[in-house]
Write a structure and sequence with these properties.
Layout: H1 2-84, H2 90-106, H3 112-123, H4 143-152, H5 160-164, H6 167-178
Helix pairs in contact: 1-2, 2-6, 4-6
């Protein structure tokens, strides 16, 4: 009986040792799995941040290119205005140049060159010119045409003089009409 008890105790010890080793092995595997998962998550998160930064850099480069193209066109338009109307205030020249550039983007069938050539031909860059037929402003818009187009351009029509002598409105209406 003592031998059996000794054998049973030895069996229990061996069993406890096996259970302890099994638990230790499970804990080690669990820790390794959690550690690996965390490292993988960290790497995935770093990759996502890197991709986000790369996209932000590309967006910034694109914005810089667009702005430099815009500034180039505005300077070019202002130099054309200077050739024909040196007395026009710089602020007005800039507003006109910006409007022309914006309209060339809005109406892709109208280039900056075409809009400038139209203004040069129609009014010689004099915003207050009125033709013998009654056309008004830079792009020589007839009052009836201007009144019709104003709504679609979001311009409140008050009077032909108020709207069509405004160079920016005149350009917007003229480009809408040409397009």
């Amino acid at each position: 009986m003592m031998k059996q008890d000794a054998h049973r105790k030895q069996g229990n010890s061996t069993h406890r040792l096996k259970v302890t080793l099994l638990i230790a092995l499970i804990v080690i595997i669990s820790i390794s799995t959690v550690s690996f998962s965390y490292k993988f998550y960290e790497m995935e998160s770093a990759d996502a941040r890197m991709a986000h930064l790369e996209q932000a850099i590309l967006d910034l480069k694109a914005a810089m290119n667009v702005d430099s193209v815009r500034q180039y066109n505005i300077r070019r338009i202002m130099s054309i205005i200077d050739r024909y109307n040196k007395d026009m205030p710089s602020e007005t020249k800039y507003e006109i140049a910006s409007a022309i550039y914006e309209m060339s983007l809005k109406y892709t069938n109208l280039s900056v060159d075409l809009i400038c050539a139209t203004i040069t031909q129609e009014s010689g860059w004099k915003p207050d010119v009125v033709s013998h037929a009654g056309a008004i402003g830079l792009m020589q818009i007839m009052p009836a045409t201007g009144s019709f187009l104003a709504c679609s351009e979001g311009i409140q029509w008050t009077s032909p003089e108020d709207v069509l002598f405004n160079p920016v409105y005149n350009i917007r209406l003229g480009c809408r009409y040409l397009s």
